[in-house]
Specification:
The protein has one domain (8-58, 130-281). Helix 1 packs across helix 7. It is built from 8 helices and 14 strands. The protein is of the alpha+beta class.
Length: 282
Amino acid sequence: MSDLQNRYDFLLIFDVQDGNPNGDPDAGNMPRTDNETGMGLVSDVCLKRKVRNYVQMVGDANAGFDIFVQEKAVLNTKIDASYDEEEVKNAPPKNKEDAAKIVMCRKYYDIRAFGAVLTTGKNAGQVRGPVQMTFARSIDPINFLEHTITRMAVTTEKDADKERTMGRKYTVPYGLYVARGFISPQFAHDTGFSTEDLELFFKALSCMFEYDHSAARGTMSTKKLIIFKHADALGNAPAWKLFDLVAINKKADVEVPRTFNDYNIEIDRAACPENVEIQELV
């Protein structure tokens, strides 16, 4: 049972400099873009992966902070293992699925947060997670660059006399992205997602890029996390109205933004409903 009593909506504002924030495998790993507007995109799956990686790094897997979806993980093996737990073994046949679902939610943080389909092995049902995120979209159109790179070494001895091999690398000189998120206490009660889990989630959003550096991604940083905390579980205002309170615009004298300081971020706190609290992190 979750102790989460409030609905939350949030804006995650992050940037990339000289890197590829989310390559598209269907387009030769070029940065994802909206073809009609030129705005950059980062998928929700990409962002959730970074949250998972952070939780896996800082959480205690034996204390309910293990991660279900890991690189090269065999998911059915994990689902099947839930049936070895005593509470599932002792459950009546008609209740084993529900008992296995409870075990999986208790053990795996990402199932409690994001949900999962647990019907591919021994059936543990389907879980709808309380935390949902949208694709992140850049504030302005991005203009990514294609770079030719060379490799001095070769892979096998038979290639030792060959010239240097060539490759391609794509980077976004600068882009400021915004993702929207929603946290439902109703679904949290179903998965057991707690206030402790929530605090870890916001911590992950704030810090996840600091532990995910790579040559391909350049410099990525969470610049601001704006959280709207509702007074009750059903919420006190539509999420879109709260998101519209935040205006992000290039400064008047900036033609081509290249840093976060080239933007102004303004929050219309006076127009915020009384029963919604605005919190800013990072």
